[in-house]
Amino acid sequence: MKRFYLFLLLLTSGYLLPPASAQSVRWHEIHPGIWKGTVGKPDAYDLLKAADTEPSSTLKKLKKADFPLNNEDISVEVKNGKTYLRFPLERNEQLYGFGLNFQTIHQRGRIMQLHADHYGKSDNGRTHAPVPFYVSSLGYGVFVNSAKYIDVYAGSSVRKDSRNAPEVQDRNTDKNWQAHPYSDAVEMLVPAEGIELYVFAGPKPVNAIERFNLLSGGGCLPPRWGLGFTQRVNRLYNEEQVKAEAKAFSDKGYPLDFIGLEPGWQSKSYPCTFEWDQIRFPNPEKFVKEMDAVGVKINLWTNPYVSPDASIYSKIKPYTASNTVWNGIVPDLSMPEARKILFGQFEKEHVKIGVSGYKIDEVDGFDTYLWPDVATFPSGHTAEQLRQTYGLLVQKYSYDMFRKNNSRTYGLVRGSNAGGSSFPYVIYNDNYSHEDFITALINSGYSGVLWTPEVRASKTSEEWLRRFQTVCFSPMAMINAWASSTQPWTFPDVAEQVKDMAQLRMRMMPYWYSTFAKYHYEGTPPFRGMNLEEGFGMEINKEKTPTNLEENPYEEATAKEVKNQYMAGEYLLVAPLFTGQTSRKVILPKGKWYDFYTGKFAGEGEVITVTPGLSKIPVFVKDGGIIPMMPALLHAPKANEKVDLEIRYYGKKQAAVSSLYDDDGETFAYENNRYTWRELKVESRNGVLRGTISAPEKDKPNTIGRVTWHFMTN
Amino acid sequence: MKRFYLFLLLLTSGYLLPPASAQSVRWHEIHPGIWKGTVGKPDAYDLLKAADTEPSSTLKKLKKADFPLNNEDISVEVKNGKTYLRFPLERNEQLYGFGLNFQTIHQRGRIMQLHADHYGKSDNGRTHAPVPFYVSSLGYGVFVNSAKYIDVYAGSSVRKDSRNAPEVQDRNTDKNWQAHPYSDAVEMLVPAEGIELYVFAGPKPVNAIERFNLLSGGGCLPPRWGLGFTQRVNRLYNEEQVKAEAKAFSDKGYPLDFIGLEPGWQSKSYPCTFEWDQIRFPNPEKFVKEMDAVGVKINLWTNPYVSPDASIYSKIKPYTASNTVWNGIVPDLSMPEARKILFGQFEKEHVKIGVSGYKIDEVDGFDTYLWPDVATFPSGHTAEQLRQTYGLLVQKYSYDMFRKNNSRTYGLVRGSNAGGSSFPYVIYNDNYSHEDFITALINSGYSGVLWTPEVRASKTSEEWLRRFQTVCFSPMAMINAWASSTQPWTFPDVAEQVKDMAQLRMRMMPYWYSTFAKYHYEGTPPFRGMNLEEGFGMEINKEKTPTNLEENPYEEATAKEVKNQYMAGEYLLVAPLFTGQTSRKVILPKGKWYDFYTGKFAGEGEVITVTPGLSKIPVFVKDGGIIPMMPALLHAPKANEKVDLEIRYYGKKQAAVSSLYDDDGETFAYENNRYTWRELKVESRNGVLRGTISAPEKDKPNTIGRVTWHFMTN
Fold it and tell me: pTM here?
């Protein structure tokens, strides 16, 4: 009898109770191969609401698919005011994504808290784009639509009730004892009383990413000029200095499409006025027009923190946070009032006089200067929610301003998140590690964002050229000389090689533009990791370093990741060299690969070693690759300007087909169907390869002049 | 009219509403100079509840004081399920504490999330003892009694409504632009719907710390043997090897009070059985007794993660977490059932046969192996709460076991928190940076915990000796040879100097024991930073490094902190040298200071440079310092064993008084008043200094034999 009462007591006090049984998620296929599930009471404000984009119309054309996971293996539980998530993992499954990581690609086994922040030299979830999306090597994706800091255990912890529990080992005697036993689940903790989840079908991993990107409108489509070259000048240059800079590019024959002005264009910065400095830029409208006349657009640096000296200060103050940033007030951009005031000012002062875009700085975070998590915002959204979405908000509402003016933009932003794929902004940061920058470029493709490995300064001409080579094979070819005042020809001994690279960038514009069109219409990341490439081994080689209990008592096997080569567009494999390297290994996936410069056969499904010399970045073309190129213009073609094409074909395949995107290149007319895909076709007739381009469509833009075919492989 | 409706809409939708007005806290003086304030609905489980200790009876004797802050400047707000805290800061105020930091002492301006964890090479709040307590240079302390991860902004953010707002600067033109403007508040975010707060009066900063320590029972009082020397042997040693080790110490004349056995004493480890290995230790009871007979006690390593092969496994399983650690199940030690099973096993298998204490490992965290925050516990407490308190729980309930057996213990633990001051455990870790270890020793004094700069291995005999010197001036003089198998004489060329240091440690036992008694009865940290010393300048010199926008765009002035000297007990200033140093600067606070070894005048209120040679660690004695010492025994005196005293006096003060603590040294009899303070008095008679000790109290312990006085300064 006593025992019974004890039992009752324990029961009522919460002891002995089994954990509240997890809810099974009810999934709805909202688009073909995209399922949405809602559990509990999700926060009213989330990433997709902040981004506020329409799903791409392409989704309608996709095929329905089977739900790619066993729903019984997914567990979602709401308790203690938080949502506990569990997704299954197969033994040999690999995971990619979880935001813009800088040092790791394979995410299985990792622990992170997804948190908008400046990258702080370790992949712990704090990054410029802490996208809560992951893609599996088994060909599906998962997205957690929350604007909170999400704790992620990506196959790192073993549950007591695991169906595939790892073997128990004795560390005293078992030399193979592992600090991290095998885990069969991705677990996540969301500090909210419910959650909205999305699952994406493949069948291939890249298809899951495409679906994720299409859900928020597909990738962005930059104007053609956005894919040219851009120079960001010294922060205190005045208009004469900027004009001189543009003239120097032109005189020396370096391409240049837009110049970025750094803080000094504003009358005050950190905090900002958003107003032109009357001494350095006495007549902004005239200045912007003059620059435009010589083919160079103007991009403006800013951050969103409002100076007491800004004319909008008093008006926007009621819609700002409790805490300041560098003594500037922080607009609550989740409120229409704040947006209207801030971007109203932008539109009037900048966009209306022809400014082409922005570099929006310091919206990623960095605890030491940002508003703290104890800050409050007048919308009632928490500091955490604003931090996770601020990058989305500045992109969304600045982009809307350009759309309203029917002029495409392409700029830079230092923070983004899920839902932002369709915003024409490229992420950058101050880390400046060439190796990390390439890893970030790879990871951008897993997270629906763009990243530029920008060039700033360099210690040697070798470093300068090596960095320049990679930035020309990235979403934005840029020198950022805000502090260094460098120019492409800063190192005279490599100035010609730099010019060659910049010209190559321009010549490849048709390829890049079509690549971005595929990002926009199909969701395919323009720059992406080798693991998304068919025929590239997915296995990871783990290497256990010799045990040293003294220095590393929890030593674990480290995965050897391929972080130094990537895919650019449909056909190109880029394998950069870093300072100090004269040769490197390149892993060629299955199938034949050809040297981009010579067309010669390079290898197939093997590891080759290349010694390209300083002036070349190794690039390989997939068998049957069709690469449309144009002359090395100094500026991108203007709207509807016709350019001749040189189309290269690589390999000996007797038939191949590709497509070339075309539109006016500058306006939003493409959203009203004013675009075309031209078929590029290679066939063999009587043993001789021939290339053709389909005829232009009636009433559609046509910027294609004379077409020449080059069969690169003999 | 329309405007009015818009206003209503905005109002009801949360826009335009002023932030919910902060509540003013109602403070109650619960002990003299200690105020408690409760706001909202604090969590039912908190740090003090986990530690579950009684406040020290000393508190009754303290004087009442005025509330040390302006209550109007304190703001506490509960919203969005969280508690928002704000405490004021004066312009020149400095802050210390916020847990066991390893690289910083001055905490003003810092941002951290207090989070139980292994120290990860940066002071971001993740540490072995993330104590939510800070002390101000103005002489007050603040404690936030929450077992959650607390976000701390220790004077780092500026509020829009700041009364002392910093000057707005323009980064374009102002060379003194600061990345971190001055802030006048400590802000904290506690993820709970209310909070219990404590404020401690001074008048001096050290008094606020004393009050904080006394609130949870005062500091711990180790047994005398705990302050001797301890050796932790190789993890796989068997009983014969352990006996041989003890014999070698004795044969060579090195003191030794207890030996620590590492994982191999258990039949299996990682996860653990808590049972003796029958091959390495076939007869544990006999072994422990034999060791005790030669004056050496046994301490056992363990972690709390239960192996499926442990005899308690099935019994404890219902009271364990959802997730495992190294495949071991995790007892929910907030449940009496779990504690009873685990410590019942410990008591039966270890304590009852004479084991003297434990080293409780891996209770601090380290995400890569610990239970994740998505784990659930049968008590219903969250993984976060268990993580913040697990170190407290293992200390509390293992200590209770020894108390029940009326035998004091002194051991090691890798995690602790606020409330744990009275538990006789010293914190350690794997970081093994000599410099960081000294910084941690200093910070332990601000956080109510103890820390040992343990010696493991060394690359050179110089490093070995330098490390050994500091560990002998710390709470636990220890070599941890678990992986290295080192011994004090491992480096033959410094073996004699090491022996001298170990003997000095033993000779100083009366001083150390009284120092700990003051920790216990008065709350005074035995080892502490110079900033708590009167006459030591509190000002911080900030040094702005030359601006390099390229490499560090948010460069800030860095504070020059004094991290390489500290106070040990009432009188001693310790200034260790690190590898590579032959001389160093020492800052002597105001007042005269004397060389510990020679008694010679060293300086007063000045910076001196010392070149002590390899065999000495510079130690200075405050003017009028009375240092009781004893012969260099190989083992601490047994309970009630009498030892002769040599009492040293430093300086030329004509009168001084100190007190010497005495009790049996081994049992809990002191809790029943079985202790005594003997007065040590120096007076001048006819110009000649004379020392006296007060007579023993009737019916009180008396372990003092013959007393000799040495007047060190001529």
Answer: 0.94
